[in-house]
Design a protein that fits this description.
Blueprint: E1 35-36, H1 58-64, H2 86-94, E2 98-104, E3 113-118, E4 124-127, H3 129-137, E5 141-146, E6 151-160, E7 165-170, E8 180-181, E9 192-197, E10 205-218, E11 235-240, E12 252-254, E13 259-267, E14 284-288, H4 289-302, E15 308-309, E16 312-315, E17 326-331, H5 336-339, E18 347-351, E19 354-355, H6 359-368, E20 374-381, E21 384-391, E22 393-394
Length: 398
């Protein structure tokens, strides 16, 4: 069996009588296939947390989040050297920019563990929210271990449940090697990728695979091995068959030039974490780095991130549908969708050139964009295809 969940909408969003519609960015929730790639199997949750701080070097961080799309040669890679191939060269380049994150109780009790990506030389690190969320809630100690073995304390700069991203700061460090943040819009199905992290606590692990699919809507579920849930999260994910296991969360998915394409966040599993059949089955998911960059910039600037709002309450097409998409069951007055002329009954089929197949797909696609972005929205009405430009509004709260 594949682990599933059915996450009910939370917060102030109204729902329909069926309970399947989320206002603004809504979705039906049947048939979840994805479990969060959260923490080391068998850990004991509870009694964890650290203080949150927003005092960071903003200019350094924002500059770094601009990323780099340089080729392998400009990055100093030499895949043709003796006793080395492309993967070993990339591993040598990227490993110094990858850390293992540990959250433990003040009494030394076991806690969450995951991976992070160094984004500034003075200690800012990008990771998953679900890796550090326990640290934000309760008294705990969070540390990062660098590839060379050095350990430093860390504090939370900002975190965001909806994108499952967080930025932390390693204290008392300098001269770190920031990762090269690439351009996920250039990612192609079938291209070779490398995942780096600490699966099951095994730091500095490298796995290889290909990009299996793009724009895969993924709603991570709560795992039996973790107390953490991300019920409001729907990712517009890069799917890969590179092995991703618990502990890889927050680590980089990189191309063969060593540029980060995504932040590993979730996996599909045939069993509960900790069971013999759990672990990678070739279905891993990463947050596209283009989304991660703007969210991380917001987390550095103000400790939280606003998200885009379309204003459509949507459900999946019914059994009599003739086209995939997200069916508009409600349109909020004055919303971007209303201003663009979207009506109840319209089937949203595309956003920004991305094919929309389900209500979850619409949620993920909208949240991928920074608030204020203007994108093309395609829809079906009465069997006729139409397209309109829509400017996405910020949510009223993050």
């Amino acid at each position: 069996m594949i682990e599933t969940t059915d996450i009910a909408p939370t917060g102030s969003d109204p729902t329909t009588a069926s309970g399947r519609e989320r206002s603004g960015l809504t979705t039906s929730r049947a048939g979840r296939l994805v479990a969060v790639a959260t923490v080391l199997a068998g850990i004991v949750a509870g009694g964890l947390g650290v203080a949150i701080t927003h005092v960071v070097d903003r200019a350094d961080a924002v500059s770094a989040l601009g990323g780099s799309t340089g080729d392998g040669a400009s990055a100093g890679l030499d895949p043709g050297s003796a006793n080395a191939d492309r993967v070993t060269a990339v591993a040598a380049k990227v490993l110094p920019s990858v850390v293992t994150i540990s959250v433990t109780g003040q009494d030394g009790s076991a806690g969450d563990e995951g991976t992070g990506v160094v984004i500034t030389s003075n200690g800012l690190i990008l990771t998953n929210n679900h890796v550090v969320s326990a640290a934000a809630a309760k008294a705990a100690v969070m540390t990062v271990t660098f590839s060379g073995g050095r350990i430093a304390r860390a504090t939370i700069v900002g975190r965001d449940e909806y994108s499952d991203l967080a930025v932390i700061r390693a204290t008392g460090v300098s001269g770190l090697t920031p990762a090269s943040l690439g351009d996920s819009s250039t990612t192609a199905v079938g291209q070779n990728v490398i995942a780096i992290g600490a699966p099951l606590g095994l730091a500095n692990s490298v796995t290889t695979g290909v990009v299996s699919a793009l724009n895969r809507p993924v709603a991570p579920s709560v795992s039996v091995a973790s107390s953490t849930t991300t019920g409001n999260t729907v990712l517009d994910a890069i799917q890969t068959d590179a092995a991703i296991n618990p502990g890889n969360s927050g680590g980089p998915l990189v191309d063969l030039a060593g540029n980060v394409l995504g932040i590993n966040s979730a996996l599909a599993s045939t069993g509960s974490l900790g069971a013999s059949e759990s672990g990678s089955i070739g279905l891993g998911f990463a947050i596209p780095v283009n989304q991660a960059k703007w969210v991380a910039e917001e987390l550095v600037r103000r400790g939280s991130a606003a998200h885009s709002l379309l204003g459509v309450g949507a459900v999946d097409p019914g059994t009599s549908a003739v086209h995939a998409g997200a069916v508009a069951k409600s349109v909020a007055p004055g919303s971007p969708a209303a201003k663009a002329g979207i009506k109840v009954g319209d089937i949203v089929t595309g956003l920004g050139g991305q094919l929309i197949r389900t209500a979850d797909g619409l949620v993920a696609a909208v949240r991928f964009y920074r608030p204020g972005s203007t994108v093309a929205l395609s829809y079906l009405r009465g069997g006729q295809v139409a397209s309109v430009q829509v400017t996405l509004a910020p949510t009223t709260s993050s």
